[in-house]
Amino acid sequence: MNYNFGDHNYFASNLSGTNSFQHVLDVAGIQQGSALNILELGTGMGSSACWMSDNIMDHPDSTLTCVDHFLAFNLDLAQSNIDLSKNGNKVTVLRQLIEQFIFDTTETYDLIYIDANHRTWPVLTYCFFALKHLTDQGVVIIDDYSSEFPEVQEAVEWFTKEMSESIDICDLDLDDPNIFAFKRRQIS
Ligand SMILES: C[S@@+](CC[C@H](N)C(=O)[O-])C[C@H]1O[C@@H](n2cnc3c(N)ncnc32)[C@H](O)[C@@H]1O
Fold first, then answer.
1. Alpha-carbon distance 30 to 39, whole Å?
2. pTM of the complete model
3. Number of domains forming the structure of the chain
C-alpha cells in the first residue's frame, strides 16, 4: 500500500512493529478472525492503525477508534493513510484530547493500544482507564516500554505492582520486546 508515513513509520520500523505485535496478540489469545472492538490512544500518522486495519480487522463487525489531538501530526494525513488501508471503513478517527475521551466513554474494548503521551502520569492514567474498559478476554498493549522511555517503564511498573491482584501480565518471551501487555485477571 502506498502509505505516506514520512519519517514516522514507528510501527513497522522497530521491534514494536508487526512481528512482535502479532506475537503479543497470539500470546494474549486474540483470535484473528473474531470481531474486535479496538481502541488506539495516540495515532500520529496512522501507521499502527493501518497495520491493525490490514491485519486483524477482517471480521465485518470489527471496529477501531483512534484518539489523538493531532497537535503535532496532521489529521488529514492520518485519515488519508487509514482510508487506504484494508478495513479503513471500520476505523473512526477522533481529534480529541485523550483525557476528555476517557472521561466520556462508557465502552469496553477487546484491544486497547496505548502509544500517546510517554510521561509517567499520563501513562498511569491510560493504564487505569484501560483496565476498567477492557472486555473479559481483552488485552492492553503499551508501546515503548523500554529504557529509551524510562517514564513509560516507571508508570507500568508502578501500575503492575499496585494492581498485581487484578491483572495478568502477558509473558511475551521476547529479548527486547519494547512492548508490554496485560489482561484482566479472571476470577474463577
Ligand atoms: C508516538 S505518536 C503515535 C504513533 C502511532 N501510534 C503510530 O504507530 O504511528 C504519539 C501520538 O500521541 C498523541 N498524543 C499525545 N498526548 C495526547 C493527548 N493527551 N491527547 C491526544 N493525543 C495525544 C500525539 O499527538 C501523537 O500523535
1. 14
2. 0.95
3. 1
